[in-house]
Amino acid sequence: MPHPSPPRGAAARASHETARLLAFDTSTERMAVALVAPHGAWTADEPGGALASAALLPCVHALLARAGMALADLDAIAFGRGPGAFTGLRTSCAVAQGLAFGLGCPVLPLGSLLIVAEDARIQRAPQDAAFEVDVAMDARMEEVYAGRYRWTEGRWQELAAPALYTLEAFAAMAADGPGAVAGSALAAFGERLGLAPQRARVPTEHERAAALLRLAQAAHAAGEGVDAALALPLYLRDKVALTTREREAVRAARDAAAEAPR
After folding, report:
1. Same domain, 158 and 127
2. 172, 183, 238, 257: which sits with the fewest CB atoms below 10 Å from its CB?
3. Is residue 1 part of a domain?
4. Tell me: the pLDDT tens digits for 30-47?
């Protein structure tokens, strides 16, 4: 009769310092993948969007190969749960859930807007004890995904949960708010966001995968791992199943936005 397999994953290596974590996010046009183990960390920032569904797993295996690791070595899998592009969120959640089920390890759901906030913090105030930022990401169709976050006492607080805003509604919420503003909506909509001139702006991300990895490590250290069945996306639009005409309208709006001057 075969002996039971020895414990693996989080049960075998509970220490945060020795955790082996895989993290990825495909909620935007950039795909972020990161890996950390006691002997190092590896990151990849690659084209995402429609490419993510085909590119994510090969990128994961490439990072594992660079680290000399196998999937079975992982203690937990972190993933960007959204908000963001519908197809990208489905890719991230499906891959996280499938891998975690197969490996018997927990998942760490991470807010995709918080990744932008963490990257902005490192760009603007890496040594500051306090930092506040409104994150606004281009959601297309004249809307933004936005949330407000504060860094204090070495951790993030969510001051305003992620929500879908029209440009007018976001301007009313964020025009005179404290702190910086970060995210792709700055380049997409510019002055139409109605921000006060004195507000600091962080329009582009510097190292999304590195920011993702820091959040994954913090979540693991805080014991935020959950069952693989809870690898679920955060959708903010009222409908996710569109009619043919609606899909055509969305496609036309996206094409127009892509061709507009930035």
Report:
1. yes
2. 238
3. no
4. 999 999 999 999 999 998
